[in-house]
Amino acid sequence: MIPARPVPLPPRPFGRLLRRLAGLLLWSVVPAIAAAPAASPFLPRSPPGPQGDPSGVLAPRGLKPFELGLVINDDDPLSRLAGAYYAERRGLPAENVIHVRFARRGPEMAPAEFLLLEAEVARRTPGHVQALALAWTFPFRVGCMSMTSAFAFGYDTAYCANGCEPTQVSRYFDSGSDAPLRDYFFRPAMLLAGSSLREVQRLIDRGIAADGTLPAGTAYLVHSPDERRNVRAARYGEVRRQLGGRFVIREEDGPIRGKEDVMFYFIGLQGVPHITRNRFLPGAVADHLTSFGGLLADGPQMSILRWLEAGATGSFGTVVEPCNFADKFPDPLVLMRHYLGGETLIEAYWKSVRMPGQGLFVGEPLAAPFRVRAARSSSSPSPSSIVTPARRSQYLPP
Question: Degrees (nearest 5) of the Cα angle 255, 6, 350?
């Protein structure tokens, strides 16, 4: 059960920093040390200088395919097939695709085994890669951390909690960084997960179909009768104040149904009814604040995979009891501001969680529905990679 009152964040010892710096030796790059830029505005402008337009016209934002690494478990048939499909559809460079082998024994990987896997992936990942897509569904947890957070931060119990306690904060939270490895010495990760290969393929197709479409959907900020899980509702008014003039935002009392334009859906419940009776637009984000949404199978509450099956392109849930700390879940205002500003799904989602250590990110990482159209040439697939039923079928098992 989620207790009603979280406690303030205590300071973390300086020793944590030393441990993290030591872990950086695993990475195969020497990033430049730079101060983090300010949080991104709704429609970012090009910075002056060689990389930007001094006139300040609208500029593309967000990670590009050549900056995403893809990790495939060759001992998992679903991982092999889904990974191959994703690499082709997104046009990932061959050097960005990292093949590993580990036994799929269930939902959790032991920390000792993970450290070996992490070191191998770090050694083989090119230095220009800023984020990782993990092409599997199981395992999704490493000890007291989620799989995605363990790959991002390394296995570090500072990002865990013993009972109802806060955890280490992510410096990437609400940042304006467009290169997390360069600026923060870590690579955010997202699981390309699904209950079947076809579900993962549909997820991938939705993410690619969303790129640059600037959808005119609606953000549904839903109040829950469950007071303990309704803690994010306190932010809904601020979301409307800051973004209501730029995107349609509706507050609802209770779960929605029959909506045809869902782009964002935030709620707090153990299980959300009627989600399949709504239409999610390509690139849509949806999640529910509860204790165990990140348990992708056999959990006591609704799995975040149900959102993907209903048509969402990204979701988030915790794999270890988080209590009702709002900081351990996506902040709707931060997520929407970065996503609407043209950043990719993986960037916007990761930047929206202040304490992400216990949380699992799932979805199509490069989906960027609000990226300005000028950027589509660098993020959209070539005509030869456009999906057809025949092309999709070649990735299905016999």
Answer: 65
Give φ, ψ of 159 to 5 degrees.
-95, 10
Please answer whether residues 152 and 324 qualify as being in contact, where contact means their C-beta atoms are separated by less than 8 angstroms: no
Q: Tell me the C-alpha distance between 155 and 115, whole Å.
A: 7
Nearest-CA neighbor of 42 among 355, 342, 374? 342
On the CB side of 77, CA atoms within 13 Å amount to 7
Assess contact for 154 and 116: CB atoms under 8 A: no
Domain ranges of the chain: 215-352
Residues in the chain: 398
Q: Provide the pairing of β-strand 189-191 with 141-142.
A: unpaired
What are the pLDDT tens digits along the chain (398 aa)? Answer: 444 455 333 333 333 443 444 343 333 333 332 333 333 323 332 332 333 333 333 456 789 999 999 999 999 999 999 999 999 999 999 999 999 999 987 999 999 999 999 999 999 999 999 999 999 999 999 999 999 999 999 999 999 998 899 999 999 999 999 999 999 999 999 999 999 999 999 999 999 999 999 999 999 999 999 999 999 999 999 999 999 999 999 999 999 999 999 999 999 999 999 999 999 999 999 999 999 999 999 999 999 999 999 999 999 999 999 999 999 999 999 999 999 999 999 999 999 999 999 999 999 999 999 998 533 334 333 333 333 334 444 444 43
d(CA 110, CA 356): 19
CA atoms within 13 A on the CB side of 114: 23
| Nearest C-alpha neighbor of 62 from the set 290, 367, 320, 380 | 367
Does an H or E element contain 252, and which? strand 248-253
Element (H, E) at 363: strand 359-363
**In the numeric block, which tokens belong to residue 43?**
């429609």
**Residue 197 phi, psi dihedral angles, 5° rounding:** -60, -40
Where in 75-147 does DSSP place strands (E)? Answer: 97-100, 108-109, 131-134, 141-142, 145-146
Give the Cβ contact number of residue 136 at 10 Å.
Answer: 24
Single-letter code of the amino acid located at 135: A
